[in-house]
Amino acid sequence: MNPQQPPAYTQAPQGAYPQQQYPPQGYPQQQFPQQPYAQQPYPQQQQQPQIQYVTHQQMIQPVVAIVPSNNGSLIDGIFGPNEKMLVKQRIEPFEVVLGFETENKYDCHFSNGILACALEESNFFGRWCLGTKRPFTLHVFFKDNKREFLRLERPYKFYFEEVNVIDSITNQKLGKVKRNFTCCERVMTVYDENNVVQYKIVSPFCEFWTFHIERNEQRVGSINKKFSGFLQEMMTDADNFGVHFPSDANPKQKALLFAATFLIDFLYFESDPSENRRHNGYY
């Protein structure tokens, strides 16, 4: 045989290798469906539920149902279910940069989720010449629909400053908050519409940021100035206050104590352009 040529393979003789049977004998025969898979009906897909998107404003501001009184007043529905709240004064960039006193603006956060705003109405000459003693009207309204429900009116007083609290819807006076003459303490008196004393607000000596709400010489609540941060405290006169209402106070009394927060801010924590200094609650 020539070594350069590959060997020639011959066909195996018939019957040399047994042919295998598939499947092997003894195994069950596989049964295939008579109808092909392509013709079988597909299972019905379940309808996907529609996704409802919620805006950021709806997440941070829950819907609170406020039922008006018989005379249409909203004071009971707003202040009745709330035991505490937070009052935050807005920072005014124009006032920070130029030093001109502008009208104060506040955001009011109630414990049950109600959001309100309070805007000061005053004139430039009163803010510049009278400073923190200036007369003003403070309008308090809902943040979403701008409906006013409370109005605070402060006349000019040299020392015995006061603020009158009026229901904006019924135009009825709820009472007033008036400053008392004291030497070492800071004291205010809360009166109802009939000039009957309801509460005393007392800030003892050396408690610069705490104002206790007292009734029958017992402390039943408080108004506290909150620390707003080093830069905000040093560079602006924007202040934050936490109000804890007495547990037995009715809605009108809570509205009066709410109004006292703004008088406290103007008397002890506002900048006075006529004196070129910022009050920090130190008498």
Characterization of this structure:
The chain has 283 residues and is α+β, with helices and mostly antiparallel strands. The chain has a single domain, classed as Tubby Protein, Chain A (Alpha-Beta Barrel). The strands form two sheets. Strands 1-2-3-4-5-6-7-8-9-10-11-12 form a twelve-stranded antiparallel beta barrel. The protein has a two-stranded antiparallel ribbon with strand order 13-14. A hairpin with a 4-residue loop joins strand 8 (186-192) and strand 9 (197-203). The radius of gyration is 39 Å and the shape is elongated. The chain has helices at 56-60, 75-79, 93-98, 124-130, 230-235, 251-268; strands spanning 84-89, 105-110, 115-121, 136-142, 148-154, 162-167, 173-179, 186-192, 197-203, 210-215, 218-226, 240-244, 271-272, 277-278. It has six helices and 14 strands. Mean pLDDT is 79; it is low at 56-62.
**How large, in whole angstroms, is the Cα Rg?**
39 Å
**Assembly form of the protein:** single chain
CATH top level label: Alpha Beta
Poorly predicted regions: 56-62
Written as H for each helix and E for each strand, in order along the chain, the element string is HHEHEEHEEEEEEEEHEHEE
- Strand fraction: 25-35%
Predict the CATH topology.
Tubby Protein, Chain A
Placed side by side, the strands forming the largest sheet appear as 1-2-3-4-5-6-7-8-9-10-11-12
Q: State mean pLDDT (0 to 100 scale).
A: 79
Q: Which range best describes the helical content: under 10%, 10-25%, 25-40%, 40-55%, 55-70% or over 70%?
A: 10-25%
**Helix segment tally:** 6
- Class by SSE composition: alpha+beta
CATH architecture: Alpha-Beta Barrel
Per DSSP E runs of 2 or more residues, the count of β-strands stands at: 14
Let me know the largest β-sheet. Answer: 12 strands, antiparallel, barrel
- Label the overall shape: elongated
Overall number of structural domains:
1
Span of the ends, CA to CA: 126 Å
